[in-house]
Amino acid sequence: MTVLKKFLGALKRTFSARKPVGVAPPSPHIATTDLDREINSLYNIVIDAMGSDRLVLQAGKMDALKLLRSNDAGERILALRRILEENPNAGPPPSKAEIPAEIAKISELMADIIARRQVEDKIDRKVSEKLEHDHQEYVKDIRMQILREEKSEEETPYEIKKREQLEKLESVRLTQSVMELLRPKSLEEIVGQERAVKSLRAKLASPYPQHLILYGPPGVGKTTAARLVLEEVKGLEHSPFAQDAPFVETDGTTLRWDPRDMTNPLLGSVHDPIYQGAQKSLAESGVPEPKPGLVTDAHGGILFIDEIGEMDLMLQNKLLKVLEDKRAFFESAYYDPTNERVPPYIRMLFEKGAPADFVLIGATTRDAGSINPALRSRCAEIYFEPLTPFQICQIVVNAAEKLKVELEEGVAELISEYTIEGRKAINILADAFSLALEESDTGVKICRSHVYEVAQVSRLFQFVTKKASAKSAVGHIFGLGVSGFLGSVIEIEAVVFPAEKGKGTIRFNETAGSMAKDSVFNAASVLRRVTGRDIHDFDVHINVIGGGNIDGPSAGTAILSALVSAVTGAKIRQDVAVTGEISLQGKVRPVGGVFEKAYGAKQAGIKTLVIPKENSKDIPRGHLGLKIHAVDTAEEAFKWIFADVIETPDAENI
Fold first, then answer.
1. For the stretch 500-539, what's the b/e string if a residue is b when 16 or more beta carbons lie within 10 angstroms of its beta carbon?
2. Less packed terminus of the chain by CB within 10 Å, N or C?
3. Which residues of 86-96 are buried (b: 16+ CB within 10 A; e: fewer)?
């Protein structure tokens, strides 16, 4: 028996022992008739239910003591009415004829009181049992707490062995990652992305920072730039980012939408108490457990999603909803808002959602078409530029300084021929450093031979195989193409042979594409207008070296120039590249990707770029150190393409 129960029992006995002063318990009336016996039975039932002491007390309160001891049956019945109804003003006593009806009413009243008392007793027993159980649990918790507090700090031999194994593992370090060592530590170390970094900083340093999508080839510094810009803008007075603003990074290729919403690391998910196993304290109460995702981890900072173009479109739509609401909401069929056992924090998550006010920065190496248009419309877009060979050389030289190694002359230039990615260039340098380290006993010097060996082992090939030349050539020209964010030169050559008048044939690469073949026929018409020669008087063979597919009409001007050169014998400059669609009237029409094509020209050593006049605003003057000429007609283009003078039917020099 608990202390509480002992106390309640003693208190009950104390009150039971108390008697009103000058009041004696009612004595049973001498039963002389059946009515007296019936009334005595009623009194005995009341005494059993209430106890004699309580009956006397209640009779005193209800002014029924005299009536209780009366020999008159009516008065005794009235005493019972006052006691049971708790009404001291009840009366008058019933007459002898009314007594049977009064006895019936009193019997019903006593039945109700006894039934209610039985229910109350049952509830009291349950309360006592609950108190007893809770008391035992409380004592158990106190005992466990005391045991934890008094537990000896000494470890068992098994615990000591396991801890020592973990400490030994923690002490082992193979090496520092080369990428970690050579990663830019400041914005000034990011080579070749000055304009993109400036734009990125301007958009994040604003009091109203924008969501961003960064486009560009891999390995040019998109992730590093975003991380460094955040660190820089934290210290600005008008910046909304606090000093502890998080930078949460994830990869879009690993994020997938689960239609059941059982697992969603990006937006968060709910673990139900039955199948997914919410924590024990919640599962026992049947309460689901919401688990916020990365959008909540990034609250107040930046959520950076690399390769956002690889994300599931449905997940992109769901992310869009979070960007609009700035909260992530949870749903579960197991959540019952009326359940009092639901903890307040879970109730808040279900009813208000988890906070998710962050700036989204997505990076992708794919084109804009891979991004949800609705998501793109809410984001500013920044394009990171491909790296030129000169910029790759800068990255290699800076990395060599951090590695504290010497480079043989020409090593940086050689590495730049194998890649256009800064990350890849550093990897090649690191592999060459390992080879040089094995061969050197003193100072480490990386030679060209080391780079060649790395290229052979890794099966690398020179990224730029088409080189410009200072010599002019007949029937050979450099066109320009673009794939994704990378431009490249396209070598086009043409040769003609005299044929029977009007019976010449034209051969062209089938793999070059139907639009390129259409450009050949357009060029044939312009050729006749420019030179007065009919292409059908010759057997013509036009070839795209390498068999590449020219997806679009942008090689039209280049094909025309190669044909004119082959027919007239005029030489074409081999340090010039040209792009632009040719119309039947000889107009050079605008094309896409001029900015990226300039990088391809620079990679190949081109010095002069000829573009359509309508594309002149797409590329800054002097971009990448190139001489850029915007032209409106084929005749204007010939002035910069040909090294020789071309005679027209009107004898006008072009």
1. eeeebebebbeebbebbbebbebbbbbbbebbebebbbbb
2. N
3. eeeebeebbee
Helix (H, G, I), strand (E, B) or coil at 280: helix
What is the rounded end-to-end Cα distance, in angstroms, of the chain?
Answer: 118
According to DSSP, the β-strands at 506-508 and 576-578 are unpaired
113, two tokens: 């009181």
DSSP state of 97: T
- Residue 578 β-bridge partners: 479, 610
Would you please indicate which residues are annotated as catalytic (active-site) residues? 554, 597
d(CA 259, CA 373): 22
Pairing between β-strand 359-364 and β-strand 302-306 as defined by DSSP bridges? parallel
Handedness of CA 506, 508, 513, 518 (dihedral sign): negative
- The Cα 111–Cα 94 span in angstroms is 21
Q: Which of 529, 596, 590, 533 is nearest to 556 (CA)?
A: 590
Asked if residue 530 lies in contact with residue 637, where contact means CB atoms within 8 angstroms, the answer is no
pLDDT, one tens digit per residue, over 457-489 is: 988 887 765 678 888 999 999 988 887 777 888
| Residue 482 neighbours by CB under 8 Å, 6+ apart | 488, 592, 593, 596, 597, 600
CA–CA dist 283, 262 (Å, integer): 16
Helix (H, G, I), strand (E, B) or coil at 532: coil
What local confidence, expressed as pLDDT, does residue 274 receive? 64
Q: What is the pLDDT of residue 187?
A: 85
Could you tell me the CA-to-CA distances from 491 to 459, 518, 527, 590 in Å, in that order?
Answer: 25, 18, 20, 20
Q: What confidence score (pLDDT) does residue 152 get?
A: 54
pLDDT at 4: 37
Name the residue among 577, 578, 580 with its Cα closest to residue 554: 580
Residue 379, burial from CB neighbour count under 10 angstroms (0-12, 13-18, 19+):
buried
List residues bridging with 328 in a β-sheet.
354
3-state secondary structure of 383: strand
Amino acid 416: pLDDT: 87
- For 299-324, the pLDDT digits (tens) are 999 999 998 988 888 888 889 989 99
Six-digit token string for 64? 């029924």
Question: In Å, what is the CA distance from 295 to each residue of 329, 356, 422, 515?
Answer: 11, 5, 30, 46
Give me the pLDDT at residue 646, please: 63
The conformational region for residue 448 under phi > 0 = left, psi -120 to 50 = alpha, else beta, is alpha
Per the listing, tokens 């008008």 go with 238
Is residue 96 classed as helix, strand or coil in its secondary structure?
A: coil
319 Cβ contact partners less than 8 Å away, ≥ 6 residues apart: 266, 267, 295, 311, 360, 375
Q: What are phi and psi of 453, to 5 degrees?
A: -65, -40
640: Cβ contacts below 8 Å, ≥ 6 apart: 573, 576, 608, 610, 629, 631
Q: Report the pLDDT value the prediction gives residue 62, as an integer from 0 to 100.
A: 80
The pTM for the full model equals 0.66
**Positions in the chain short of pLDDT 70:** 1-32, 144-154, 173-179, 259-262, 273-286, 441, 464-466, 510-516, 547-552, 645-654
Instruction: Please give the single-letter amino acid code of residue 235.
Output: G
How many residues make up the chain in this entry?
Answer: 654
Peptide bond into 92 cis (omega under 30): yes
pLDDT given for residue 629 in this prediction? 92
Q: Three-state SS for 627? A: strand
Quick one: CA dihedral 507, 510, 511, 515, positive or negative?
A: positive
Sign (positive/negative) of CA torsion 455, 461, 464, 469?
Answer: positive
Report whether 233 contacts 205 (CB < 8 A): yes
